[in-house]
Amino acid sequence: MQVYVLVRPGELALCEVPRPEAGPDDIVVRVRAGLTCGTDVKAFLRGHPKFAMPTSFGHEFSGEIAAVGVHVRGFREGDAIMATPTGPCGQCYYCHRDQENLCETIMETMVLGAYAEYIKLPARIVNVNVYHKPRTMSYPVAALLEPLACVLHGIESVTVRPDDTVVLIGAGAISLLHLLALRAMGLERIVVLGRRPHRAQHALRLGADRVFTDGLVAARDQVGDYTQGRGADIVIECTGQVDVWEAAPHLARRGGHVVLFGGCPPETQVRIDTQRFHYDQLRIVSPFHFTPRAVRRAYELLASDAFAGEQLISGVYALPDLPRALSEHQSGNGIKFAVVP
Ligand SMILES: [Zn+2]
Ligand SMILES: [Zn+2]
User: Are strands 210-212 and 189-193 parallel, antiparallel or unpaired?
Assistant: First the structure.
């Protein structure tokens, strides 16, 4: 089968390797859609601490079951499925405390290789994070399961009311997934801060009430005006940049919630205003990854009519065109791109 290998930053190779075989507890999936993701773009451009190279890569996918291990129940060859690239061990300290996102082995056992014809999923994924794809859902939309699970896990870390005002910082795929999820939860007052005007326009089409593109300093006044001077009930940072982490709390009201969603580069620190943190009782959280609970909710949301997932897929490329799909993603010429073997 064909698989893309990230040889070193900036170098991709389409290689021929043996098709994976299913062990007794595995399933092998014939990939029908892999989605580009900011993480992949970053790994391609400058490497990634979690991806030792050379490595196969791509972690958002959906497909059709090509082979099933003898112990696997509930899935058959030919079933259309959607899945995440990780699963918890179910046995460690964190797994026993419903914090499976922090499972001791969840990241090191991540399955990479969605940019390939086939991908093998081990028992820990098969047991909890594989779902049958509804017939009416497209494969690219089904592949949104993983990023949407991350987003819903993040939203779960704060209290959301339908009349809340939410500020989303960033106008990329993760921000827009938040936007769609919050809209589906009935929120109407959602503001998106973006730097690229055409991406921000996309946010308006997807249901943002306002879009501000004048930068974070100007946004303080703009968000102030929008909220009678209070600031937003919830601020969600979706960029993973230190200066944006530092700016995010300034957009929140007293007693507001701040979600720092995007992971920052290693060995960086942020400063927070202690007076606002304490006397304005800000709640600042930084959720990581997702639990099986969030995956289930992502599945249910994708399957509902309330979620316009199709709007996030900006184009479809054949597998050999992966480099083009990544560069389109990187240049912001769309939200996410599907790569179809
Ligand atoms: Zn991703
Ligand atoms: Zn565990």
Answer: parallel
